[in-house]
Amino acid sequence: MIEAFIFDLDGVITDTAKFHYLAWKELGLKIDIEIDEEFNESLKGISRMESLERILIKGNKQNEFTLKEKEDLANDKNKYYVELIKHISPKDILPGIENLLKEIKLNNIKIGLASASKNATMVLNNLGLNSYFDFIADAAKCKNSKPNPEIFIMAANGLDVDPLNSIGIEDAMAGIDAINSANMYSVGVGDKDSLNKANIVFENTQTIDFNQIVNSYKAC
Ligand code: G6P
Ligand code: MG
C-alpha cells in the first residue's frame, strides 16, 4: 500500500534548476571559473556548499579560499538566486504537477518534500502549493547531500510512513540514487538514459501518470 509521495522540488515541481544554474554562473564570473550546462548537470540535487566545493575543484581553486571566504561565496550565490526566484508565482508550476498533487490527495496519500534547498519553503509559498504538503524536510538539518538518502528518510519520518511504502520523484541522478538507497520506489522525470536507475521514468512532468506509478509499484 502506498502511504506517501515524496517530491524533489527543483526541476520536478518548478524549473528553479535554471535559476540555480544562472546564479552559479554569475558567481563563476566573480571567481573566474566557467560553468557550462553540462557541468551544471552534476550540481543538480547537490547542496549549496558541496556545489561550491565541486566548482572550486573544477577551477583548480579548492585551496585558494578559507572556510569563511567559501561561506561568503555561497552566500553571494544565494543572493543572486533569491533575486531570481523573487517573482516566481503559480504560473511557474511545471505542467501536470498540481493535478498530480490533487490526485494523490484524493487518494488519501500523504505528500512530502525532500529538497536539498534551504529556499524550498519560500519557493513552495510563491507557487501557492504549500497546503498540499504534509511535511517539508528541513534541508538545513540535513548533513549529507543526495545521493545520500538522508533527506528522503527525514521526509518519511516526518510523515510517519514506511520508506518501503513511499514513492520518491526526482529529476537528478543523485536524487534517484538517494531514493533507491532510502528503499523507496523511484520515479524519474527526464531523460530515460541518464535516469536509468529509476524504477520508472517519465519524459517530463506533463506525462507523469498517477495510475501508471501505482500499477508499476504494485507489480514490483
Ligand atoms: C537543490 C538543487 C541544487 C541546489 C540545492 C541547494 O537540490 O537541485 O542545485 O544547490 O537544492 O539549494 P539552496 O537553495 O539551499 O542553495
Ligand atoms: Mg531536482
TrEMBL record:
Record site feature (Important for catalytic activity and assists the phosphoryl transfer reaction to Asp8 by balancing charge and orienting the reacting groups), residues: S115, K146
Major location category of this protein: cytoplasm
One GO term (biological process): carbohydrate metabolic process
Annotated binding of substrate, by residue: 8-10, 24, 43-48, 51, 77, 115-119, 146
E.C. code: 5.4.2.6
Catalytic activity: beta-D-glucose 1-phosphate = beta-D-glucose 6-phosphate
GO cellular component, one term: cytoplasm
Superkingdom assignment: Bacteria
Cofactor: binding comment: Binds 2 magnesium ions per subunit.
Residues bound to Mg(2+): D8, D10, E170, D171
Name the UniProt record assigns to this protein: Beta-phosphoglucomutase
